[in-house]
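Appendix B. Raw example, untouched.
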Amino acid sequence: MANAINWFEIPANNFERAVTFYSTVLDCEMQRMDLDGFRMAIFPHGEGGGGGVGGAVCSHDEFYTPSAEGTLVYLNGGDDLSVPLSRVAAAGGTVLMDKKKISDEHGYMAVFKDSEGNRVALHSMA
């Protein structure tokens, strides 16, 4: 098994607000899909099953409830997570833990609450 994780979904009550939040914070385009009432906006990841871990912001009245508890997903903070972290508040989120060094070997982390109330983290090596 190459990766223990191959897909993740971040719940959203207000789909458009959540997509705008993540597109702004990560400075990326997200592919939108509607699968029989399941609205998804997919984060950029490895093309064609090329080993990249994929994920999406998802919305559906019966299946997704944002939460600040439970599993913590770490998003790629790029070369320096300070850059996307600096966009969190302006995009409608709250920084819960500023950039913190984990170790020389494991880089840095930060935690924020997104526009929907989910607790999410960023990771980078610098």
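End of appendix B.
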